[in-house]
Amino acid sequence: MKTVVLLGKGSLAVRIAQWFHDSEDHELTWIVPVVPEPAWTDSLIGWAEDHGVPYVESGHYRDLPGEGNVAELGFSVFYDKIVRAEFIARFDRLLNLHNGPLPRYRGVSPINWALKNEEDHHGVTIHEITPGIDDGPIVGQVTYSIYPDVDEVEDVYQRALAYGWTLFEQTAPLLDRITARPQDERAATYYSAGDNERLGERRGFTREGSLRS
Question: Does domain 2-189 have CATH number 3.40.50.2000?
Fold first, then answer.
């Protein structure tokens, strides 16, 4: 049985936590939630409390108990902190689900930027976490259509949750047999939090709404 630590927030993280919890091949040993949790989505902390899975109250990965190897697999779903090399080394493998079609749209607000840039497709990616930002080898990816003329950020976000779940559900049982492929640096794009002021009307979940974290 493979030990697992899950990091992240929201309904997709809850759904993935439940999958690991129910799996006969995995033992979910710790949750590292985003703190404070966003009020507009499901609570990962609430799920952990309901299922008796311990969680890091501070929400910071550095406060995960123990020394050395902490779990065989770590899985991040929209976690809000950049993890350092010393934390990566505590796992046999540490993966991230990113709501962008890597190597494009690394960094923050990938959906906002895809709509701002009037893309006709977007994606979700599972990749290995490295000391860089969203630049680790790709384990699996799904791309899907988006419609900048009619889509709000919240529409594409909901689509990303659905496709992200499908990608995870179909990829997770195969992880030990998948060889991750390096990203093509020539195609890489990146946006930081400091770039968000340039998003204009695409800064929020809707063009008339406020930015959600």
Answer: no
